[in-house]
Amino acid sequence: MAYENLLEEVIIGEVISPEAYEAISAEGSGFKYIKVNIPSTRANYENGNGEGCWTLVTEEDAEKYEDDNCTDTFKAVLANYSFYYNIPAGTVLPCHFNKKYRPLVSYDYLVENYLVNAEENRLNIIKQIIENGGKLV
Fold first, then answer.
1. What is the spatial distance between Cα 77 and Cα 18, in angstroms, rounded to a whole number?
2. Tens digits of per-residue pLDDT, 80-118?
3. Nearest Cα to 76, choosing from 35, 27, 48?
4. Number of domains making up the chain
5. pTM metric for this prediction
6. Does 71 reside within a domain?
């Protein structure tokens, strides 16, 4: 199966199959890795802060990543687990470029779809790291 149009065909929130993920993460697939921020609060969203997570995007969107004036929206496939929201790798997320700053996942989408307290999760992760000598267990 070809995956070059994957992000046009999938629904936001869908978790792609391991086969599809492997195909789009392969070199020469037409997809590239970029980092996005997943904000834990509205204030963090408004300030461009959040959990930095790797995502896979189309080559076209990866080029926009370098444009310091771009505010376009795009879909991204989460490449690693999000601790703040317990979002699994392979999940398709709605994002937008944030000019010269790191792109952001839509905070409204996060609030509507993940009924957890992300800020509390973030603080618990920091606490675990401190309590475990700098390691997350």
1. 12
2. 988 888 899 999 999 999 999 999 999 999 988 875 666
3. 35
4. 1
5. 0.83
6. yes
